[in-house]
C-alpha cells in the first residue's frame, strides 16, 4: 500500500485534500466527506491529513474559506467595474456576481451555506460574510439617500433581495430548479432574470 501513496511538497498536500473534498462533494454531497476518504482520494495514508485537518469540520472549513475568498474576489471585481453606476445599479452588480459565483461553484456554496458542518463563528468566515453584508447595506443606504430607492427601507430591501438570491442558489444545489421548465436548462439565467426583476421593482 505504501508504495502506491503519493508524495506531496509542503503545502501541496493541503491543496490536494481540498481538491479531493470537492470531488467528494460533487459525487455524494456533504454526507460523503470524511478526512479518511479525502486522504484516500489524494493518495496518502489515512493519518497524513491530520497535520492540516484534525477533523472533518476543519477540512470543510478550509473549503468554506476558499469559497469565501472566491466570492469576495468576484464581488470586488463586479463593484470595481460598476463603480461609475448609481448605488442601486452597483447593488444589482453585486447580486449578479453572487449568483454567478454560487451557480458556477455549487459545491463551494453548498459548504458555506450549511452552517452545521463548519465552524462559522470560530474562523474568518464570519468577518468575511459581515464585510459583504456591510457593502450591501451601504449601497442600499446610499440608494435611499439619493432618492433612487423609495417606498421600502434599506433593511427590508437587503433582506428581501438576499433571501431571493440565497434561495435561488440553494434551490439550484438541491435540484429544485431543475423541476421547472427552463429553456435550455439555463438556471443561472433564470436566477439573474428574477433578481433583475426584483431590483427593478425596488426602483418603482
Automatic annotation (TrEMBL):
DNA-binding region, residue range(s): 34-53
Highest taxon in the source lineage: Bacteria
HTH tetR-type domain location: 11-71
Keywords per UniProt: DNA-binding, Transcription, Transcription regulation
Listed InterPro entries: Homeodomain-like_sf, HTH-type_TetR-like_transc_reg, HTH_TetR, MT1864/Rv1816-like_C, Tet_transcr_reg_TetR-rel_C_sf
SUPFAM superfamilies membership: Homeodomain-like, Tetracyclin repressor-like, C-terminal domain
Record-given protein name: TetR/AcrR family transcriptional regulator
Organism expressing this protein natively: Acinetobacter seifertii
Lineage: Bacteria, Pseudomonadati, Pseudomonadota, Gammaproteobacteria, Moraxellales
Amino acid at each position: 500500500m505504501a508504495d502506491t501513496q503519493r508524495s506531496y511538497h509542503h503545502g501541496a498536500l493541503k491543496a490536494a485534500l481540498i481538491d479531493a473534498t470537492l470531488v467528494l462533494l460533487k459525487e455524494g454531497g456533504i454526507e460523503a466527506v470524511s478526512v479518511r476518504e479525502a486522504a484516500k482520494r489524494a493518495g496518502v495514508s489515512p493519518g497524513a491529513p491530520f497535520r492540516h485537518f484534525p477533523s472533518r469540520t476543519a477540512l470543510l472549513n478550509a473549503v468554506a474559506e476558499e469559497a469565501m475568498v472566491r466570492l469576495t474576489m468576484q464581488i470586488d471585481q463586479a463593484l470595481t467595474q460598476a463603480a461609475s453606476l448609481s448605488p442601486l445599479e452597483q447593488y444589482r452588480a453585486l447580486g449578479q456576481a453572487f449568483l454567478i459565483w454560487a451557480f458556477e461553484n455549487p459545491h463551494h456554496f453548498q459548504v458555506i451555506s450549511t452552517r452545521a458542518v463548519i465552524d462559522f463563528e470560530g474562523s474568518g468566515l464570519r468577518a468575511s460574510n459581515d464585510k459583504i453584508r456591510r457593502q450591501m447595506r451601504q449601497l442600499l443606504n446610499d440608494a435611499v439617500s439619493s432618492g433612487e430607492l423609495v417606498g421600502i427601507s434599506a433593511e427590508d430591501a437587503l433582506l428581501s433581495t438576499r433571501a431571493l438570491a440565497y434561495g435561488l442558489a440553494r434551490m439550484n444545489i438541491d435540484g429544485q430548479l431543475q423541476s421547472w421548465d427552463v429553456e435550455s436548462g439555463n438556471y443561472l439565467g433564470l436566477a439573474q432574470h428574477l433578481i433583475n426583476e426584483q431590483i427593478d421593482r425596488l426602483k418603482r
